[in-house]
């Protein structure tokens, strides 16, 4: 099942590249995104890997054998968020 297509047409066949690109472009336009907002299918992988809860899960989702690839290319979010100190409005 590792090689099964992810998106199928109404006849149960995999979309051709042209058909998939047309479908995704129509969806992008229907969603209100203009030409300046280009999305590509590979952006879905980057989003899924970047949103992974930990590095091992990210590496597995990305299908990488080397954690360095996952860290360098896909881990785009900070691992720990440090809040800024509050500034009093009276100080200004």
Description of the structure:
The protein starts with 16 loop residues before the first helix and ends in an 18-residue tail after the last helix. 42% of the residues lie in helices and 0% in strands. It has four helices and no strands. The protein is mostly helical and 92 residues long. The chain has helices spanning 17-30, 42-50, 55-62, 67-74. The radius of gyration is 20 Å and the shape is flat. The protein folds into two domains: 1-37, no CATH class; 40-77, no CATH class.
Helix run count: 4
**What are the secondary-structure elements, in order, as H or E?**
HHHH
Radius of gyration: 20 Å
* Count of DSSP strands: 0
Q: Which segments are poorly predicted (pLDDT under 50) over 5 or more consecutive residues?
A: none
Shape: flat
Strand content: under 5%
Described by strand count, sense and barrel closure, the largest sheet is: none
Q: What is the terminal-to-terminal distance?
A: 62 Å
Task: Quickly count the domains.
Answer: 2
Helix fraction, binned, reads 40-55%
Mean pLDDT: 80
Class of secondary structure makeup:
mainly alpha
């Amino acid at each position: 099942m590792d090689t099964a297509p992810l998106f199928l047409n109404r006849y149960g066949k995999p979309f051709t590249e042209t058909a998939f690109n047309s479908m995704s472009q129509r969806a992008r336009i229907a969603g209100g995104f203009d030409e300046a907002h280009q999305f590509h299918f590979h952006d879905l992988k980057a989003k899924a890997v970047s949103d992974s809860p930990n590095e091992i899960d990210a590496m597995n989702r990305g299908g990488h054998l080397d954690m360095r690839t996952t860290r360098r290319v896909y881990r785009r979010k900070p691992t720990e968020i440090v809040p800024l100190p509050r500034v009093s409005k009276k100080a200004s």
